[in-house]
Amino acid sequence: MRNLLLSSVVALLLAGCTFGHYGKLKQVPAPASGDHSMIPKPIFGDNFNSFLFKTNITVYGKDFSGLLMTKQMSPQDYRVIFTTELGMKIFDFEFKDTSFTLHFCVPQFNKPKLLKTIQRDIEMLLMNNLQEQNFDYYTDQKNVYTIAKAKSEGMYNYYFTEIASKHLVKIEHSKKRVKKTIFTLGNYVNDFPNNIVIQHCDIKLKIELNLLKK
Question: Do 209 and 126 touch, CB atoms closer than 8 A?
């Protein structure tokens, strides 16, 4: 009986992570042409120098702690470097327009599927070319969030903006109605989230970012 109850709890936790609630959302009219007020605002803003995060990446049961720096080299050109606190480089990525360059990566991360997943996670955080995407707009049943939905490479991204604070608090990367990745943004200070957690539902990968300096 005890094992049955434990199995039920685990099943409920997994269901909460993977199965979406999108059928309960209420679609609302899109804003007029030229009105970008409902489009999610980029997390890092349109122009910035750099952000430094204390970071922990848990992948397949192993923890990697250190510092992650995001630096804008020029418009649409971003460098993202993850090092240990002693300065040893773990990976070094560059995102420029629609291209991706791997400058360096330790063997533990240099696996095609894992590398592609982390690349996509960072691209989601950078939120490039949002105004070029086509969105559908929704609200939840309690009218707490405005949700912008966009299709990308056969997947769907749902951006949850809290109506009261106008803060982006969650992004869900989904396939049809099944959640694949959940980005949670919290502890906003001066309109920037000091804590970002990226939790994957289909692989054992979690990324935690805590702002140190910008």
Answer: no
Residues 6+ apart with CB under 8 A from 194: 186, 187, 188, 210, 211
Q: pLDDT band at residue 30, thresholds of 50, 70 and 90?
A: confident
pLDDT > 80? residue 149: yes
> HEC string of 73-90?
EECCEEEEEEECCCCCEE
DSSP state of 8: H
Q: What is the domain range of residue 10? A: 2-213
Domain count for the chain: 1
Burial degree of 114 (CB within 10 A; 0-12, 13-18, 19+):
middle
Which amino acid, 160? F
Residue 140 sits in a domain whose CATH number is 2.50.20
- How far apart, in whole angstroms, are the C-alpha atoms of residue 209 and residue 193? 10
